[in-house]
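Quick question: what would this complex look like in 3D?
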Amino acid sequence: MRPIRARLAITVAGFGALLLVALVVAPVVGSTAISLPRVFDRSIPFADNLDAQIFFIARLPRVVAATLVGASLAAAGVVFQALLRNPLATPDTLGVSSGAALGAMLAITFHLDFKIAGLPAIPLASFAGSLFALAVVYALATGRRRGLSTTVLLLAGVTMTGFLSALTMFTQYLANFTDTFRTVRWLMGMLDVGSYQPIVTVLPMLVVSFAMFATLPRALDLISLGADAAAARGVNVPRAERMALVSASLATGAAVSISGPIAFVGLVVPHLVRLFVGSDHRLVLPASALFGAVFLIGCDLVARAAFAPIELPVGIITAVIGGPFFLWLLVRSSR
Amino acid sequence: MLRAIGVSFTYGRGRKARDPDVLNDVFLNVERGELVGILGPNGSGKTTLLKLLGGMYRPTNGSVTLDDRPVAEWSHREIARRIAFVPQETHAPFDFTVLDIVLMGRFPHLGAFALEGPEDLAIARRALTATGTAPFEGRAFSTLSGGEKQRVVIASALAQSTQLLLLDEPTASLDIGHQIEVQMLLRQLNADQGVTMLLSTHDLNLAAALCRRLVLLKDGHVLAAGPTEEVLTPAAVQSLYSVEADIARHPATGHLTVVPIRRG
């Protein structure tokens, strides 16, 4: 086996290159054909370069949204799995996405309009919702010292999702017709952000969560072997667990506030990545973030192209891929 | 070297009547190069005592010192550079390789963002060789047998390069083949590499064969402590487990051997 330094370099370079290709190719695909050389032709002024305008203004924001949402959900999935010592723990299966969705729904429906530290109400409410849901599941998991069995964890997630979805529907029931139309589409998981604005808004949250992720990988390796084992190797377990909890909730909250809940990214991506890089979280975490971005860009491409000119919500595509994948994992893990 | 001075411990905060002391005023002393065993029935506080000694829990009262300095003064990493702990069982939810697991022992020696270098790899490989697990360093940890897993986790603890190794019932879930394997390994590590060890066990015969000194623990109290020959008596087994036992020197091994006869 190559030393970790080399494996990390190969992993980041490989998945990074893949993302770069996706970032350039995805905006080219669409109902109007554009030419890449013309897009990057600096001799034509931007105001006259229709291809560049379509690329940068009409299509790239959506691709950038897919990049950030995909990276956040996949990285959060990795953190959840290690924290709860269970490969089936994800933002979706734990009800954390539903918590984020409920938070955002409340903010949208009741036109909450406040700012804390420059952050608007929707992403903040979304973060609060995901932190709440995760805290409940986590309290259940640590209440029993040996961690949760898959059965209990999944049942807790199903219950959490059901409970929070009911509250979401109740909120919707109270809303007026225009808001309902907006939120129904949003709840399906859409990436048509329209401009860079919604992305820029939550960027601070994403930067903080990814900076926190960067401190976690080795502690996550050890925590996945058990809290006592990790403490014996010198991990400050309570602090690492708090970091993991808050950073994963931040990332999920930010992602959901951009796009609505997009299911199964946090499940499919880490598992696929582990097939290539093994289980070391110093490789799995960055690789999942990069590949999560590629995965969601790809799914969104399918969502735009499959029934063109109709654009499907990308959440439908990820669910169609993720559902069977989850069942396969469940069958495999129960063997 | 390692000392528990009047250590008491309570899970929870001890405010309620149902939070009884798990340990009560325990004194214990392990000298450099020793191999000491802690014996006691289920629930007597063996595991808790080890975790207190390993700095993983803080005592409610009393203190734990290593080379006359209180362990509580050190950070988690500083403690882990001095004391390693092998839990009773280790379960990996992801497919870590054996080498992955052993390299995790280097955690307390690395900075927050540092990656293992060639020297760490060399230390890990030496630990693999010392425990006889080198042949399967590339295999997935989860595919190993119980005995192999235990040896790999011991290797991981050795890679921590500590002066002291604490083991919680190292042979509890193993068949006799793997039990003797782990027993030989511990004896050899203690004799050849001078690793100081403190282990808890249910297995009276393992303790008699391996440890020159024993601490008997019952209901969180130290019942007796001293050289194995003096401490391991029918009367001690009677009061620890309510079992009538015959204790004799085994002709082949020369160790004390405990044969339980009846409950009584």
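Answer marked as accepted. DSSP finds nine helices and twelve strands in chain B.
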